[in-house]
Amino acid sequence: ATVDLSQMDTSTAKNMSRMFYGASSLTSLDCSSFNTSNVSDMSQMFANTSSVTNLNVSGFDVSNVSTMTGMFENMKQLAYLDISDFKTPKLTDMSNMFSGDARLVNMDLSSFDTSNVTTMNNLFSEDGSIVSITLSSLNLSSVSDISGMFKDDKKLANVDLTNTVFPKTQISKDKQVDFTLNVNQSESEDLALITG
Questions:
Q1: Which of 24, 110, 138, 139 is most buried, most CB within 10 Å of its CB?
Q2: What contacts 24+ positions apart, CB below 8 Å, involve 102-105?
Q3: Three-class DSSP category at 191
Q4: 123: closest CA among 172, 187, 178, 58?
C-alpha cells in the first residue's frame, strides 16, 4: 500500500516521533515534499514499517533535529536509503537509528554533522546484510556511548573512517563497541582509538 502525502502541510510540525510507526502494510513512502525545518524530534519516525521497500526523504531539512533515535529501525525490507542531504548540526542522539534493517547493504553517513552527538549505541545493530559503512570525516569527539554499534553485522567487511575525529577521552567499558568485526587492520586500529 502507498499513501499520497504531497498535499500534507508540515510547516509548523515540531515533533514527528513515531509518525509512521508500525505502519506495516505500507510498501512505499514519499516524504520528499515535507517541510521539516521546525522539527526537533524524528525518533522512530519510520520504525517498524516492515514492508516499506522504497523511502524518499530527500527533501528533509533536519537542521533543527536533535534526536533520530530509531528513526529507521526495523525497516526490514528497505535495501537502499539515501540520506546524503542530511545536515545535522543539532543532532545529539543516533541510537538504534538503523537497527534491524536487515536488507541494507551500504550506508554512507559522511555528510552528517555529528559534532554534538553523544549517543550512537546500536546504530547499525542486527543489519544482517550490511557490507560497507562510510563514517569518513565524522566528528565523534562528543560521543560517549557506542555500545552494540555493529552488533550481529556478520557480513560487515568495510568501515571507512578516513579523517574521522575520535573522542579525546576513553569511552567507559560498558559503552564500547563489541569488536567482532571483519575489517582491515588499519580500520581496526582506528576503531580501537574510540575504546582506548
A1: 138
A2: 102/76, 102/126, 102/127, 102/128, 102/129, 103/76, 103/77, 103/78, 103/79, 103/129, 104/78, 104/79, 104/80, 104/129, 104/130, 105/79, 105/80, 105/129, 105/130, 105/131, 105/132
A3: helix
A4: 178
Sorted by sequence, the CB contacts under 8 Å of residue 167 that are 6+ apart come out as: 140, 141, 142, 143, 144, 194
Name beta bridge partners: 93: 67, 119
Q: Which amino acid is at 11?
A: S
Contact 20, 26 (CB under 8 A): yes
The chain-wide mean pLDDT, for the chain, equals 88
Please write the tens of the pLDDT for every residue from 61-78: 999 999 999 999 999 999
CA distances from 39 to 20, 56, 71, 85 (A): 15, 17, 13, 16
Contacts of 4 (CB under 8 A, 6+ apart): none
Which residues are within 8 A (CB) of 73 and not within 5 positions of it... i.e. 6 or more apart? 44, 46, 47, 48, 96, 97, 98, 99, 100, 101
Q: Please give the Cα distance from 166 to 173 (Å, whole number).
A: 16
SS3 193: helix
Model confidence at 1, in pLDDT bands (50, 70, 90)? confident
